[in-house]
């Protein structure tokens, strides 16, 4: 049945174009209603720091459900941004309660102050949710790496079998990228600043109290205090875009490997819950990896738009900051959805060790030609050893024999017991198991992995000349306070005054993570021997042997 339907209903975005984020926590946290609430939070905080009583009134009125988001969006076309119609509606709603308090709505601010601040609030909330899923992914990968520390498989370079490696080392590499993404997001999250500069970034409307008002405003919102208004100094948005692009790429690497290793002819991995096909009943598709891969291809291009907005003219530009809104939201949604999919994928990944061993043996020992050269070189010289092994590998491939047999047929080569040992590729893993141990011991020396959702939030209204109560139904977006610390980009940023919380690591990571030198915890899925090296434990993983 085909129907044109109600135009208003047809304008709704249900996520049909983007299943990777559909139904994810980040989708709700970045929806139109969430953005509307962030705009209202920004306006309410500005009122609270200027007048206590008016701030309470504005805060009580500033609930997204009281306002018509669609109407605001349609009226925004007249002025180019949603703040202009929102301020008119908010001022009218406040006047109904107390006409004297209406004058404190939007007092001293410009539209960009409110939009930028709301985007930072929205981003902070979205990044917290994404970080939680990245932490889940990291823990699941840590368990996989420990459990498969010495599980042999073929290492592949330029699509071909190269030398033996272990699945534990592959999983440890995935985990390393995920932790790198977490550290980068934590740095950016900690530096997300409030925006308050007034009409042209001079704070003229606040008289001599401008800098103090900015400090109180940032503290009220739990955002960083900028050294300068950043209307045309777009470091925060550019940094966030770059961190999101890195996160998408990190997850994309994991997905790319899962897609290759889950091919029918390879069969070394499988998603625990595969997706079906509309045409082929036998299919069990790697859907989570597919969705992650799709997100990874989109976010870098989106980040380029955000970086392009750095080239902004004058004191406040036309078009540069407007161009950021939708791309930033899309990047947050794609990475948040990909992180949720990655956590589910890694927690439910099926590792088929029998197929790994079978595939490793497929070349009949040719993956050990490098080792054969090392064994022969002390007896024949490296150049001669390489020529002999190259000839033996060619003969083995042509005749369908194994490398050891082909080497034994060469009368010029010495009969060494080490050559016979080359029949078992799984016995030649190099330092792969040790490298897994090194990766799993990653701690503060490389950047503590933050637990953003575990930090204590500062109370709303705890700072500024007119601290007010939190919104009755809206949790504050607060941030932990670590005192003055060097910032990045537009200048030194420090946490708004009046709140305290856990200190930061040397990399500025937010929240409580592992102590200096401690590894990311594995939830009991890996054990540790007396020598400090993680030892395998099945950790409840699905595995076929």
TrEMBL record:
Residues 364-440 form the Adenylosuccinate lyase C-terminal domain. It comes from the Bacteria. Residues 479-495, 532-545 have a biased composition (Basic and acidic residues). PROSITE patterns: FUMARATE_LYASES. Residues 455-545 are annotated as: Disordered. Pfam families: ADSL_C, Lyase_1. InterPro entries: AdenyloSucc_lyase_C (IPR019468), Fumarase/histidase_N (IPR024083), Fumarate_lyase_CS (IPR020557), Fumarate_lyase_fam (IPR000362), Fumarate_lyase_N (IPR022761), L-Aspartase-like (IPR008948), Protocat_PcaB-like (IPR012789). Keywords: Isomerase, Lyase. One of its GO terms (biological process) is 3,4-dihydroxybenzoate catabolic process. GO terms for molecular function: isomerase activity; lyase activity. Belongs to the class-II fumarase/aspartase family. This is 3-carboxy-cis,cis-muconate cycloisomerase.
């Amino acid at each position: 049945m085909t129907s044109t339907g109600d135009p208003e209903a047809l304008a709704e975005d249900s996520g049909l174009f983007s299943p990777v984020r559909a139904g994810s926590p980040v989708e709700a946290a970045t929806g139109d209603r969430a953005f509307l609430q962030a705009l209202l939070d920004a306006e309410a905080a500005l009122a609270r720091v200027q007048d206590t009583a008016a701030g309470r009134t504005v805060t009580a009125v500033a609930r997204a459900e009281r306002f018509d988001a669609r109407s605001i969006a349609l009226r925004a076309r007249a002025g180019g941004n949603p703040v202009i119609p929102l301020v008119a509606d908010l001022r009218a709603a406040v006047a109904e309660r107390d006409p004297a308090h209406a004058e404190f709505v939007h007092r001293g601010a410009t539209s960009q102050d409110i939009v930028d601040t709301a985007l930072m609030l929205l981003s902070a909330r979205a990044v917290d949710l994404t970080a939680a899923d990245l932490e889940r992914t990291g823990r699941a990968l840590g368990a996989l790496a420990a459990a498969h520390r010495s599980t042999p498989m073929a290492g592949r370079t330029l699509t071909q079998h190269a030398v033996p490696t272990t699945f534990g080392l592959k999983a440890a590499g995935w985990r390393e990228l995920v932790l790198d993404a977490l550290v980068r997001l934590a740095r950016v999250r900690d530096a997300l600043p409030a925006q308050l500069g007034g009409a042209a970034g001079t704070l003229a409307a606040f008289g001599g109290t401008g800098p103090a008002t900015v400090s109180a405003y940032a503290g009220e919102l739990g955002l960083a205090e900028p050294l300068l208004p950043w209307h045309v100094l777009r470091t925060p948005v550019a940094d966030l875009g770059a961190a999101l692009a890195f996160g998408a790429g990190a997850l994309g690497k994991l997905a790319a490997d899962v897609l290759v290793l889950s091919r029918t002819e390879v069969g070394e991995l499988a998603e625990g819950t595969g997706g079906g096909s509309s045409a082929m009943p036998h299919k069990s598709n790697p859907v989570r990896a597919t969705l992650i891969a799709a997100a990874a291809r989109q976010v870098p291009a989106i980040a380029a738009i955000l970086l392009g907005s750095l080239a902004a003219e004058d004191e406040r530009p036309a078009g540069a900051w407007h161009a950021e809104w939708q791309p930033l939201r899309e990047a947050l949604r794609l990475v948040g959805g990909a992180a949720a999919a990655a956590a589910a994928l890694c927690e439910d990944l099926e590792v088929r060790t029998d197929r790994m061993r079978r595939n490793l043996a497929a070349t009949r020992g040719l993956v050990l030609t490098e080792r054969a050269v090392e064994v022969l070189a002390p007896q024949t010289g490296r150049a001669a050893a390489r020529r002999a092994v190259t000839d033996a590998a060619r003969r083995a491939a042509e005749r369908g024999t194994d490398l050891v047999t082909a080497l034994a047929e060469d009368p010029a080569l010495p009969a060494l017991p080490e050559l016979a040992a080359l029949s078992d590729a799984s016995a030649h893993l190099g330092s792969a198991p040790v490298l897994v141990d090194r990766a799993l011991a990653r701690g503060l020396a490389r950047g503590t992995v933050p637990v953003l959702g575990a930090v204590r939030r500062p109370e709303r209204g705890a700072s500024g000349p007119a601290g007010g109560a939190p919104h009755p139904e809206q949790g504050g977006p607060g941030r932990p306070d670590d005192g003055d610390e060097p910032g990045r980009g537009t200048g030194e940023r420090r946490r708004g005054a009046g709140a305290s919380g856990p200190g930061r690591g040397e990399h500025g990571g937010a929240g409580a993570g592992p102590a200096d030198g401690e590894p990311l915890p594995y939830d009991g899925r890996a054990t540790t021997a007396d020598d400090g090296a993680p030892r395998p434990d099945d950790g409840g993983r699905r595995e076929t042997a």
